[in-house]
Amino acid sequence: MTAELMESFTHVFVKSVRNSFYPVPQQAIGVGSAFEGWSPCERDVVYRVLVPLSPPPGHAFHLELNSAGQTAARTFCVRVEQLCTCRREQLGKKPLCFLHHSEEELRQKQKPSLLKTLCTGSYLDVKKTLRWFHKLVRSAWLRLPESSSWHLVFQPSSRSCQFRLSQGKQSLTLEMLLGVRQGDSDIFVISQPAETQKGGSSISVSSQPAEADSMPSTAWPESYAVAEVKFFRHIARQVPRESLHLKCLQVFTCILRGAGFSSSTWKTVLMHLLSSVPLSRWRRREFARRLWDIMAYLRRSLQSKRLEHFVLGNTRLPAEISLPPATGTVEPLNLFEHLARDPAAHAEAMRAY
């Protein structure tokens, strides 16, 4: 239902922005646990989708890596550049050029540039963009056939668009994240920090807890969620039919919820093991052995104070996962770097283990 709903939304979105200079929403991509085939708690499933934004006519997006905090979580700014449109026609008419026509002529005859509406300075502003997108979703919903039978209520969220749909006893929570693709790759910069997206912080998951409200409004965190979804789909095609690798993940993220380690820590460990333990060994009869493998991998990572990011700097990813040229050659991020710097945090993590 989420996929069908987002297809309907996208169709209306594109029509709504056609004659403007707002970003153009593209087809949504399902991300997170629900689209990877598992969920930490089935009663609280949130269906997250990433809505890629393309620049409007006469504009281009350029990603600029922020210099601060690179050892924890990379963030980017999306610089908006105006392009010459003097030789371009749009829907049979020639648009005015933002670079070569006067301000007065542009103001009188053409809708404002993206730089005038959703940017702070030359950079795309997350909060301004989300306020615009909330209005777009609200108006689009009234034009969808689902609006006649489902009730939509927006949920509070500072860096995403989240709402709950209900129809009698049925309900569905959907969260839309906005993003800009890095080139033609599966890596995006998105509106929401990764840990917020994945479901809470932990004593041992990140060397810099991501607080959405404290981030600059022009900061777009890097996201590997699309690459991770593609990795799990790749694994699903390779493992035996009765494989229980996702059940292993649910054991740790659901049964041990709140025990000290976040779901993203367990998922990172599992992905590393799926790349090193032969997939033929994830059968039902070896379930307990694989649970112990996960615990042993976590123990070694805690003792060495090193748990490498699975995507960034990983040279063994399946070929179908596309990375920006520079991403595959960077030094892998150490998700346990803070444990090496803080003996008290390391001792607490060992106690939790």
From TrEMBL:
SMART domains xrefs: Mab-21
InterPro entries for this protein: ITPRIP-like, MAB21L/cGLR
Superkingdom of origin organism: Eukaryota
Disordered: annotated segments: 197-216
Gene3D superfamilies given in the database record: 1.10.1410.40
Bias (Polar residues): 197-209
A GO cellular component annotation in the UniProt record: membrane
Name of this chain's protein: IPIL1 protein
Provenance organism: Ptilonorhynchus violaceus
